[in-house]
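Box S1 | Example of a co-folding query
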Amino acid sequence: MLIIGSHVSFTKDKQLLGSVEEALSYGANTFMFYTGAPQNTKRYAINSVITNKAITKMQENNIDIEKVIVHAPYIINLANDKEADKYDFSIRFLKEEIKRVEELGIKYIVLHPGSHVGLGVEKGIENIIQALNIVLEASSTVTILLETMAGKGTEIGSTFEEIAKIISGIKKKEYIGVCMDTCHMNDSGYKIEEFDLLLEEFDQIVGLPYLKCIHVNDSKNIRGAKKDRHENIGYGTIGFDNLLKVFYHKKLDCIPKILETPYIFEKAPYKEEIEMIKKKQFNANLK
Ligand code: FE
Ligand code: FE
Ligand code: ZN
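Box S1 (continued) | Returned holo structure for fe (iii) ion
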């Protein structure tokens, strides 16, 4: 079964109910959101009455809450411990964020592994492992999904080897997983056109069971550009047919596929994009 959705908003007043309603308006059967602005730490208390209404709404509309994803704010950087207070803050904030995710009844949080900002990949990975072990120590039902990155600047996690190295250091392995991002993988040098081979490689290096979510985005840049600029489905360098293979890959059935493609004329393109993916037919009139 195709589990498809997009990034949606999560507002102070409507919270999870607003996110569900937005997802339904796109014809989605899952969704992903930030629990607040991704670039700051201002967060509102979770309202359990609204959460319960949202859960009912999901049940009525066949949205499996186990497939819903939260994205951690990108101000969290677990790779850099140059300044102890910032490193501690990242750890503390991720812990708090996970509590919110738990309160919402959601199982997965996607995290950018981090940027080593000059410390080197080795040290960066060490810092990430140490931080994740601290975060996971507090018992929890939430699984952290490490996102595959484009390799922009000093980003860690742009190769399967780096992701595998992080996982190897995690004590509670049942609470760690991976979220692939097709735009990021393309920009880091992987061939999305040869997705079967790519999955095999991932299985050998990381292990396919760790894969719990895929961000399916086209890319504005050529393979290996190390850029990370998302493009609408079928409008970028990866192309519609190659992305369709990702959406409908047999081995990835039931793994949530999330669109993080850019707005078109300040409007969310997700309803139209989901429609063309379901129809398996490219719509050249989106922009
Ligand atoms: Fe991300
Ligand atoms: Fe992503
Ligand atoms: Zn990206």
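Residues 4-279 form a domain with the TIM Barrel fold (CATH 3.20.20.150). The chain has one domain: 4-279.
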